[in-house]
Amino acid sequence: MAVHEECGVFGVMSTKRENVAGIVYYGLYALQHRGQESCGIVVNDDGAFSSYKDLGLVSEVFSKDTLSHLSEGNMAVGHVRYGTTGGTTRNNCQPIEVNHQKGKMAVAHNGNLSNALQLRDSLELSGAIFHTTSDTETIAYVVTRERLVTPSIEEAVSRAMNSIEGAYSLILMSSTKMIAARDPYGFRPLCYGQMPDGTYVIASESCAISAVGAVFIRDVLPGEILVFSEKGVASRKEHCGRQKRRTCIFEYIYFARPDSVIDGIGVSESRMRAGELLAKSYPADADIVIGVPDSGLEAALGFSRVSGIPYGIGLIKNKYIGRTFISPGQNERLDQVRIKLSPVKDVIEKKRVVLIDDSIVRGTTSKRIVKLLRDAGAREIHMRISAPPFLHPCYYGTDIDSEENLIACHHSMKEIAQIIGVDTLGYLPIESLEKLAGSKDYCAACFNGEYPTSIPKDLRKDRFEGKLSERV
Fold this sequence. Notes:
This protein has 472 residues and is an alpha+beta fold.
């Protein structure tokens, strides 16, 4: 599995001055699966902002000493990032902070804008100077531009939403308010909850709300703007209903943590349902069903439940490998998959194995996992994928940016089975996706090519890299 998603966002609006950075820290820890490249926290102490951001995991960037240097306050916003647009540099770490004529602002964003390049060109021609190569700075500029001519930050966000297109679940913090906004399609998840003392928390996923001891209230509606202030929570819905909901189906298949609930659908149950549907669509005569950790485990349970084939733990994931571990690029003799995953020989040896994973992108990772099982003595391997084949790029925050690297674009299912070394292969039928999301209100453009928005003109992963080098 080699798909990544852009990031996770987390915000706190406290009823008193306290260590809000500590709350954000634990919220980001719960969202670490959404991004492992960088993280950051900005604290608001009565209008004075303090921040810390760097490359690395939450536990690597924020030591006890680092957190102690962030001032106490009543608001804070945090971010974990895996970059799809923009390079992996400290400049691209979020939240992005802006000082403008009417005050300060910090923005954390999950998703990708489909019209970012056009907006950036327009802003640069009007005198804007960019310091990063991420979509988030474009959002910050558009909101700032509107804020200079509007009476409130929430009105500025509303007007900005008339200009920005694509996927954005964002948290924006001003000197006195916290704003949560979700694009009219609802591509990426966003929800909020409340702690026992009245403190509000906003997060990409409900698992992070539970992690800090808060009670989940509800998802932010597609197109909705929530305004958190000393007066409580206010909802603005002028952008709601402008587009048909299009929640990313891959949130259920892979991105989200199993204990999260997105738009009323439990992620774990959705994945088990995918396994059940796979067992009906592509049955196998086998002795054991195993899943590839972590997102293949629930689907494996579902396959086992319907097929009657026993479920087993056949692969163990090394949970202590961070982003700094040695990669095959540094030493070709070391296999990255073998370092991350270990086969349980007693479970696999001399068995006919059903192997469940969430996707096949290029096929290289799948081929290595299959070899692990063969080396451990598996007699047969029947691979089942809990998603349809990837056939198209994603422009909304998923790291799938080129059809030339997608194995399913160039090979039949039988050919892919031969390439990765399995006896049989089966993908989740695309018509089954509705049963995972509970409705037809999802985006599956990476599978069917039906994009809800216009396709960006510049299809490079780092769309701004050339622009920066040209103007140095």
